[in-house]
From TrEMBL, chain A:
Keywords annotated in UniProt: ATP-binding, Cell membrane, Membrane, Nucleotide-binding, Phosphonate transport, Translocase, Transport
Family annotation (SMART domains): AAA
The organism of origin for this protein: Evansella vedderi
Family annotation (Pfam families): ABC_tran
Lineage summary: Bacteria, Bacillati, Bacillota, Bacilli, Bacillales
Protein name: Phosphonate transport system ATP-binding protein
InterPro entries cross-referenced by the UniProt entry: AAA+_ATPase (IPR003593), ABC_transporter-like_ATP-bd (IPR003439), ABC_transporter-like_CS (IPR017871), ABC_transpr_PhnC (IPR012693), MetN_ABC_transporter-like (IPR050086), P-loop_NTPase (IPR027417)
Domain ABC transporter stretches: 8-257
Automatic annotation (TrEMBL), chain B:
Chief localization: membrane
Short name of any one Pfam family annotated for the protein: BPD_transp_1
Annotated compartments: Cell membrane
InterPro entries: MetI-like, MetI-like_sf, PhnE/PtxC
Domain of life per record: Bacteria
Keywords associated with the record: Cell membrane, Membrane, Transmembrane, Transmembrane helix, Transport
Stated family: Belongs to the binding-protein-dependent transport system permease family.
Protein name (record): Phosphonate transport system permease protein
Entry annotated with the keyword Amino-acid biosynthesis: no
């Protein structure tokens, strides 16, 4: 385990959203310290509002931490240049709960957008993707079972098909890390399993590192090699799924406690 | 309690006493004041426009109408030529205005630029819109001389006032999710604009542009009144020389073209979205 590359290093990370009128600012995340190594499959769990989405989005620079240190893929997210952030996002793909696809473009064009990080601005603006990129995007969609939907516009696709297009876009990026924010929350159970199985296969066969936000603990236990539980912006559990006891879950999901949940690091 | 669940909702409790809404004295004072102001405004206006029942004469109207009928079709070819010039003014005026409106639209959108920039550009657009087309036409007649070029330039500027605002509203209404989706692949902001924003706003841009084209054709018919080109020239000409049968031809041609253009344009607008 120790010889593996550390892909994510967070130290005492704190994220505070800009203050809104009439509401006090409690950090969305605080005191987050963790490292993620290559080939891990991590599930991030926690109640709604615990900070799961905030955590994932901070990894690719969509939210700026207010304190601490965050290094992803050897890039200091808080101090780096715009160019480096683009490069980071290219290597760290995100799959969203609401798919975040471009409705008026076809499945293929959406998947092709996964190559945007690889081509220049002029080519990108003119839509001049190399032929091998197009073929790659096409094959990725076919591999995900979308062979007869490739040229459909996304607004004509079902939720499950859209999520597969979103996965295709992420895979076309050829990323090292895939972040998935409740990728199955709007899908039924068989599609949920399909999505998670796909991620699991990529994790096992291609050595892809996966971080997935899940609200379903059973699924988290089933797929993840490590679970991180957040509660009110803090890590209350970080370890192997087996170590996640009923008592801890009680704490995480029913807020009786006063934050004395034990932290068990690997 | 009377709140039993088996009872249908429309069977209300007969013992409940109706309490009417309370209206205070000041409520009626306000109402009276509003009525008073509206009345005074209309009294003042009617005085101003010298409404005189004697002047509204049925005979005179009938007389005028009889002198416009039947339309003089001899001038059809001449008038048609001018009408097509109006159409050309509307086409180039709209396209020019649309192109110019794109940067203005982005610069007036709160999700694209700093609030200060937005306020400045919005104010500029409001100013442009508050000046009537005919004044722009007069200005350009002086600047570039008589003819359709003046009318076209006037139409371009005038269109920007509305299209710039409408475009910016379309941009402000976009769903930010696809944009983040594109950015999440490592695409630059420029590419996110191209793939995340443009596909969302383009249909709206086109629909608004068609709508502006309908308006532009109608409004461009009067440009000729100040020598800025198009069919309006014949309106003044035949009006001044009391050639009402020819004026009828002009009116008829405008009517037909407006109807056809509106139908075509709204059909295309529906096709897009
Ligand atoms: N853009 C924002 N501006 C201000 N506050 C925000 C913003 N996004 C999230 N928050 C706040 O930060 C906290 C964490 O939110 P986050 O979306 O990360 O939670 P989550 O665990 O993903 O919840 P869910 O399971 O509902 O998706 C919440 O209190 C939320 O209200
Ligand atoms: Mg969330």
């Amino acid at each position: 385990m120790t010889s593996k590359k550390k892909l994510i290093k967070a130290e005492q990370l704190e994220i505070v959203y800009p203050k809104r009128k009439g509401s006090e600012t409690t950090p969305a995340l605080q005191d987050i310290s963790l490292t993620v190594e290559e080939e891990e499959f991590i599930a991030v769990i926690g109640k709604s509002g615990a900070g799961k989405t905030t955590f994932l989005r901070s990894l690719t620079g969509f939210v700026r931490p207010s304190a601490g240190k965050l290094v992803v893929n050897d890039i200091d997210v808080m101090r780096t240049s715009k160019k480096k952030i683009y490069e980071l996002r290219r290597n760290v793909a995100t799959i969203y709960q609401s798919f975040n696809l471009v409705e008026r473009m076809t499945a293929l064009d959406n998947a092709l957008c996964g190559r945007l990080g690889y081509i220049g601005n002029i080519r990108g603006l003119l839509g001049l993707f190399p032929k091998k990129d197009k073929e790659f995007a096409y094959r990725t969609l076919v591999d995900l079972g979308l062979e007869d939907r490739v040229h459909y516009r996304v607004d004509q696709l079902s939720g499950g098909e859209r999520q597969r297009v979103a996965i295709a876009r992420a895979l076309v990026q050829q990323p090292q890390i895939v972040l998935a924010d409740e990728p199955a929350a709007s899908l039924d159970i068989s599609l949920t399993k399909f999505v998670l199985n796909t991620l699991k296969d990529l994790n096992k066969q291609n050595g892809l590192t996966v971080l997935v936000n899940l609200h379903d603990i059973e699924l988290a236990k089933m797929y993840a090699t490590r679970i991180i539980a957040l509660q009110r912006g803090r890590i209350v559990f970080d370890g192997e799924p087996e170590k996640l006891t009923e008592d801890l879950l009680e704490v995480i999901y029913n807020e009786y406690e006063h934050g004395e949940a034990s932290k068990s690091n690997e | 309690m009377s709140m039993s669940t088996e009872k249908p909702l429309n069977q209300t409790n007969k013992n409940t006493i109706y309490i009417p809404p309370k209206r205070s004295f000041s409520h009626y004072v306000k109402l009276l004041l509003i009525v008073g102001v509206v009345f005074l405004l209309h009294y003042w206006s009617v005085r101003g426009i010298e409404v005189n029942p004697d002047r509204i004469s049925f005979e005179r109207t009938l007389d005028f109408l009889s002198r416009t009928f039947p339309p003089n079709w001899e001038v059809t070819q001449t008038v048609m030529g001018a009408a097509l010039e109006t159409l050309q003014i509307a086409i180039i005026g709209t396209t020019g205005g649309a192109i110019l409106s794109i940067p203005f639209g982005f610069l007036a959108a709160s999700n694209i630029v700093h609030p200060t920039v937005r306020v400045c550009v919005r104010t500029l657009l409001n100013t442009i819109r508050s000046i009537p087309l005919i004044l722009y036409a007069l200005f350009f007649v002086v600047a570039v001389g008589l003819g359709p070029l003046a009318g076209t330039l006037a139409t371009v500027i005038y269109s920007v006032g509305m299209l710039g605002k409408f475009y910016s509203e379309a941009i402000e209404a976009i769903d930010p999710k696809p944009v983040e989706g594109i950015l999440s692949t490592g695409a630059s902001k420029l590419k996110a604009l191209r793939y995340g924003i443009i596909p969302q706003v383009l249909p709206h841009f086109i629909a608004y542009t068609f709508y502006r084209f309908e308006l532009n054709f109608r409004e461009a018919t009067i440009l000729g009144l100040v020598g800025a080109g198009g069919i309006g020239f014949y309106i003044t000409l035949y009006m001044r020389s009391f050639e009402y049968t020819r004026l009828a031809t002009v009116t008829f041609i405008i009517l037909v073209m407006v109807v056809v253009i509106d139908m075509l344009s709204s059909y295309l607008r529906k096709k897009i979205t």
